[in-house]
Specification:
mainly alpha
Amino acid sequence: MQDHPTVAQLLDAVRRYLEEEIVPNTDGRRQFLARVSANTLQIVLRELEAEEEHLEREWAGLERLLGPMARPATRAELRAALRARNEELCRRIRAGEADGGEWSRRVWEHVRTVVRDKISVTNPGFLAPASP
């Protein structure tokens, strides 16, 4: 088993190369694409760092809303189960079950949490407090 460099270290090295070597030495479309590539790698790094915590938080939220279910053993199985549970939540929302009351409040709380987690990966600056 190889311990170093880690996946995160490799991605960060490529990101830094793009930002420090390519972006300053190109212009136009190539510079734009290098910036997009560096930003994409930064998103992947944040996803790697936060994915387990975010998946666990989403699973726990869906359990509170839809009832307990055995947690899948692998990450791939967990993603598939989350997709299925989210489809169930959507079905219940479309059926009007979240139109009011305590369950509606809990649904909104869950959705806000999941969306906040997703934004923290894709565009964390959006969650930063506004400057006065």
